[in-house]
Amino acid sequence: MLLLFTSFSMVSQQKNSVVDSTSTKQLDEVLLSATRTNRQLSSLPLPAQIITNNQIKQSGALRLSDILNEQIGLLTVPDFGGGVGIQMQGVDAQYTLIMIDGVPFIGRSAGTLDLNRISVNNIKQIEIVKGPSSSLYGSEAIGGVINIITENKKTEKLLGHASFRYGTFETKDSNFNFSFGSKKWCITSGLNTYMTNGYDLDESTSTKTVMPFYNLTPHLKFNYTFSEKLDLIISNRYFHQNSHVGYESSGQTYSGFAKTDEFNVHSRLFYKPTSKLNFIYEVYKTQYQTKEKTNSDLNGELISQSHYKEDLLRNELRSSISINNVTYTLGIGYNINTLDRTYFSEEASNNSLYGLFQYDYNVKDKWNILAGARIDKSEIYASAFSPKLAVNYFLNKYLSVKGSVGFGFKAPDLRQLYFDFENPAIGYIVLGYNVASQRLEELESQGRIDAHYVSSDFFSSKLQSEKSIGYNFGFQLNKNKLKSSVNAFYNSINNLIDTKVIARLTNLQNVFSYYNIGSVFTSGIEINSTYQLFENFQIAAGYQFLLAKDKDVIKRIDKGEIFARNPETLETFKLKATDYVGLFNRSKHTANFKTTWQIPSLKLNHSMRVTYRSKYGLLDTNNNSILDKYDVFAKDYFILDTSLSKVLSKNFEIMIGADNLLDFTDSQNASNISGRTIYGKIQFNF
């Protein structure tokens, strides 16, 4: 039964020359993110995949979250700030690194990077590497890496396209892209606008679930070839969003606005003195800034006002040299990261130096051994060392076995180090680790401290990075019309940063700060396959089984320290190990099923995708602070998407489609799923 199922899944890993909306893997596809050198995807010893431009186009996706949610092992989840993040192999969204052309997006104001701010316009491919990747990319890569590769067309004539899409909720998406140049230089530029009237999943409230907003994303890339050995690429991207803010509380309504501005400037100089040796020098500057203001609808009184401004400047030099069957890579870089936000007493900064090394031994169609390490040294947190080892071995020309072990880390973010917040209504205080000691002294001198709950030397050492170790082991089969992969994984994350009561105020409220405690694990198996049923018809399917639990909770249950109450009998009893479900917002079972049908005689392409998520729990409903089988769970659901495109002529294409055709909604647990949306699109190519 398992073998039968696996024959239907990895279309998310194969590229078709005509149109392939679900495939993500092909023998001659090249991936950069896994090794920071161009590598053939099929030979990599790591669990990786590519989502092609054709897939994105045929799926009808508009934002990055749309296309990622259709991949096995990835799950989009809403965060409490209104954004959408991505879980990878059950690892929380804040531990997945999101990049564009190899450099990171910033702006994790609540810990999660909002994928909805990233348009799929101008994307050449999306590269996904699962498992700890800190040996190449440093902090935030505990769960894995998602790298967006943008278009870099070289043409001596004007090429481009313009498109417009209109759909449910008055959603409008417009794109205009063009490229032109000469033998020496080329310019690629474009503009995306996206606006929606929002949607409402709960008619009992006076405000919408998602308020109206407007996005603007222009981009410009300049490529200049000095010689066969020297190339320069300068990329610029800007993102602007205006959005309405509205909510209801205690019978009162409040409204306002939020504004977001982001820019990225990325310069890369490529020097290749010989066919075996190359150097890459990169300079990356990015800024992410938000402002939000809320007023009472009753009397116009200012209720809240906040700001967030983060900057990152990175310089990096890398070099690779190939000797026989080995490629050696060395790199060194320096980050300057600053953050000014509401509830910071002053601007915070984090400057860090890093170096990396990689050994890549590759015998075509036989062996690949990949070993590397990176060390990060910061001025505000303890140094981190992140090694990695991966092996791929071809048993025969059809079947390979691969395994990897890697260490990852996530540095304390500036919020956890410098936050200084006092709730004026309730009276509690939250302090960042690096400011807590001084602020406690100030509160003591003001006579506001009633009791201390930590020793005087509690803050004497640096807050430690969260650290992980991840194992992946699997098989990959590529034979005739069948392509399949099976991957088992285990991720253990230690030194988790959590909040702790450090003092009690005289008003009997608490003072909180951050500290290292606890560990969790995620483990499971992924199955992906694709089968070319007919010449123009592909079937694909995928499945993930996941366990995600807190190791400390397991120990406490074994000691008989955790209790629960039966909701029917109200009886209180000790929990057993089998009663513990695991981490919040994780589903044990997720699956997808996809078909792609091409009709060349009619110039038609049809895509159908079904995704499934089993039940999951978001809240502790019986007051024991864990998720057990006596809690309330969100129900399982299916999402059905379909699209049909037709080429009318050399210059014109049209598409119609429907997302969430079954009209699933859950206002309490899945606010990021809007209900059924119908759309139409027209595109002009030139």
From TrEMBL:
* Pfam families named in the record: Plug, TonB_dep_Rec_b-barrel
Subcellular location, principal: membrane
Q: Which UniProt keywords apply?
A: Cell outer membrane, Membrane, Receptor, Signal, TonB box, Transmembrane, Transmembrane beta strand, Transport
Topology in the lipid bilayer is annotated as: Multi-pass membrane protein
Q: Which GO terms describe its molecular function?
A: siderophore uptake transmembrane transporter activity
Q: Which family does it belong to?
A: Belongs to the TonB-dependent receptor family.
Q: What is this protein called?
A: Outer membrane receptor for ferrienterochelin and colicins
Q: Enumerate the InterPro entries for this protein.
A: Beta-barrel_TonB, Beta-barrel_TonB_sf, Plug_dom, Plug_dom_sf, TonB-dep_rcpt-like
Q: A GO term (biological process) for this protein?
A: siderophore transmembrane transport
Identify the GO cellular component terms for this protein.
Answer: cell outer membrane
Top-level taxon of the source organism: Bacteria
Where does this polypeptide localize?
Answer: Cell outer membrane
Native species? Flavobacterium terrae
Q: Which PROSITE patterns does UniProt cross-reference here?
A: TONB_DEPENDENT_REC_3
Give every TonB-dependent receptor plug domain span: 42-145
